[in-house]
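re the bet — no i am not wrong, look at it urself. input seq straight from the record:
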Amino acid sequence: MAKKRVPPPPVVRDQVIVERVDDDEQASSGGGKRRRRGSTIDVSSVEFKGVANDTAKKLERRLIEAASAFEADRFGDAHKLLSSIDSLGPGVPEVLELRGLCSYRLGKWKQAINDLTAFESATGTVEQHHVLADCARALGHWNEVERYWQELGEASPNAELVEEGRIVYAGALADQGKLREGIRMLEKAPRAPKKPKVQHLRRWYALADLYERAGELPKARRLFAEVNTLEPAFGDAGDRARSLR
């Protein structure tokens, strides 16, 4: 029987920029740097070097097609397209990242780890450490989960990604029977602002789930209800609150 996961799973980059920006916007955004706008992958300015011009243009079109399939949740189709791209123009970070996230969505944990590790090595980032940690968690590689969490905390790329990593690590502790440690991990997180962001709601949802698993039903009910009050469309928080009455 599969271990119960702490929902929701980590946020992945689920929006893809496919239109090229003009020269003025490119200059104002920092030249040739990869643009990140929330949960996005920018494939608008990907260059395929070392291949003929006609091949490069074909790969660019194929990448946009793969990005569209990814956004439409057609992860299998996107994965096939990205693999064909990588076979002709290997090692492109955006291709590796997007294919790794497709593998993650398809439950292909080892494949996801391979591509996302290669992506992070190529870019020098920890932007997908939270997803890598969840892949390791699914495989029961607890030491790896802890390592990813520690590295993410040390790098602190932004509050959203650190929060995602915290949720995964707390869930991994619970999966190992360390339910109280997982609860403390989330309880001791930095205080949310007066207007909580999505990552704070996700943390509270995960904490409410752990409270329920620990038999602390009043706490779970209150927290699920609070999440539902702040964001009625947030998953099944409202249903879970009502089920605990």
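see?? Confidence is low (pLDDT under 50) at residues 19-39. told u. also DSSP finds twelve helices and two strands in the chain. so pay up
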